[in-house]
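The following block was generated as part of the benchmark described in Methods. Ligand: adenosine-5'-diphosphate.
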Amino acid sequence: MNPHFLEIKSLAKRFPAKQGELTVFEDVSFGIEKGEFVCIIGHSGCGKSTILNVLAGLDAPSDGEVLMAGKEVRGPALERGIVFQNYSLLPWRSALSNVMFGVAARWPGWSKTRVREHSLKYLHMVGLKDGAEQRKPAQLSGGMRQRVAIARAFAIEPKLLLLDEPFGALDALTRGTIQDELLKICAETHQTVFMITHDVDEAILLADRILLMTNGPQARIAESVRVSIERPRERGSIVHDPGYYPIRTHLVDFLVSRSHGLSGSANSGAPGSGHQGPPRIVDPAEAARGASSLGSPSNAIGNAVSNRPSHAIGKGPSNAVSHSTSNANGATDDRSVESGPLLRAVNL
Ligand SMILES: Nc1ncnc2c1ncn2[C@@H]1O[C@H](COP(=O)(O)OP(=O)(O)O)[C@@H](O)[C@H]1O
Ligand SMILES: [Mg+2]
């Protein structure tokens, strides 16, 4: 099997605790292909940001390793761009200057004019123009600041873009607009993206695959859910795709009902545990398509859940995760589920 562009192998993170140590997550293995957009979803505290920081080279794992294009990630580098929820802009610099700062570091040989033009191109791409380029972060709205952060990350043309709940603090309208811009830019640039989100609808709109993480401690990535909905995707029409609700129901079902039961050590032998190695691949949309053509939901689901994950690393068995049967039936039943109240209820 060809190595993946990004390979995460048996990652674990432990912190010293009052009694021994706290294992936040363990046995986390997955791969990301070049140009792929992968989202990760899991309850608060399961270790998503820690994984992202390890991928960025900002944190070191207790066990395991991360390889990007075959090279071990050992520290931060400009070939990885990061956008955090809280923007992290330099407050004394203008929007343009914040972007130029990274661009000048990335291409030290460039003239100031070239750095400026390149930076302006990306600011315009995220819709910042008409003088907003010259304003300092305090003079910009939350949505505009996040646009600057996104432009800054894209402008260095990173091999890997890491997004940690980048739209979490934005109002729904601004969030939607920036999601559209992100979709457009990714379609143009074929950017490889790893993104944390707590919003299932956002994940379905943006991702090729969604990794589902169990609750911590000893969290794991239980499933890799394929978003087999064709691109280009549009926020307004994606909900009418026959695959949309089967995927959405599967994700919500995991978060509400299964993420807790699957938590615990991979090796503990506790009920629901025992899953080791790469995440199980699930394709709820394919299952629903199969169900409607065969009239047999159970067969369809069985066919769409693979024990031989192509995106995953290694060939370890992946046999212990009990999968939901709600996906095929949920295609029509679950349209009343709204992400806001439901996901607030599960306290993501
Ligand atoms: N320096 C630290 N010492 C002890 N525990 C930590 C430290 N940093 C993070 N943690 C714990 O690791 C867990 C995962 O944190 P985080 O990656 O931020 O989760 P998420 O992003 O999924 O909400 C949390 O329970 C947090 O308390
Ligand atoms: Mg986090």
